[in-house]
């Protein structure tokens, strides 16, 4: 029960609803992986050993105990092969795509300045929708998105000189704003731990940006390696102004991508 009920302690994970439409369209092994991964009943070396099918519980890459947690997030062999990095970058790409889509949307819905709402005689004025508070993406017109794929990103040195490489940096020169996004793909039980670790890692950089006269914010976001997004991701999207159905759609494609990549990380190993 401790192993199979561990998911009940994922306080920071966004609940995932698998719809009928998704079930119909999904490849059977993906659904199987999702459910077996949540309950930790996938044929990991450790489980195979417990079930009396394999002689050893050892991980074939590093010979430590091959639990699912080990295979999907702790194996030094897989880390050295760049498998986790590859999965991280695939998820990162999907997040970057969601932000770019959000930016496109923000450009289209930008309200024209000083528009006058005429009210017919006898009608009551309709309440004005407060689009101006609709998120960071709406607060500037010149957002540039930098994404750290294959360690390519260099933090803009005219803001602050640093060796740190956040995964995504959004910069608006005209409003002097910088938004840092840092992605971790941890074992779901450690979503919160990853958030705190990344928050403190970038705290100094954020305060250096403030010192240099920039409005900087850092959003650590986590997508668990079994395909469950942390609430931090949903919060970051909301603060950026990606809300409602657009947010749900973005999170769905991100978690879907994360889970699919883990299927591959695990499969290559067996
Ligand atoms: Zn290993």
SSE arrangement:
Elements: H1 20-25, H2 28-38, H3 45-50, H4 68-74, H5 76-80, H6 83-109, E1 144-147, E2 168-172, E3 177-184, H7 191-211, E4 215-222, H8 231-240, H9 244-269
Helix pairs in contact: 6-9
Bound molecules: zinc ion.
Residues 59, 61-62, 64, 70, 75, 77 line the site of zinc ion (ZN).
Description:
There is one protein chain. With 270 residues, the chain is α+β, with helices and mostly antiparallel strands. It has a domain at 83-108 and 135-258: 3-Layer(aba) Sandwich (Restriction Endonuclease), CATH 3.40.91. Helix content is 44%, strand content 9%. The chain has nine helices and four strands. Strands 1-2-3-4 form a four-stranded mixed sheet. α6 runs antiparallel to α9 (244-269). It is globular. Bound molecules: zinc ion. This is Reverse transcriptase zinc-binding domain-containing protein. Residues 7-76 form the Reverse transcriptase zinc-binding domain. It comes from Merluccius polli. InterPro entries: RVT-Znf. Pfam families: zf-RVT.
How would you briefly describe this protein structure?
The chain is an alpha+beta fold and 270 residues long. 44% of the residues lie in helices and 9% in strands. A four-stranded mixed β-sheet has the order 1-2-3-4.
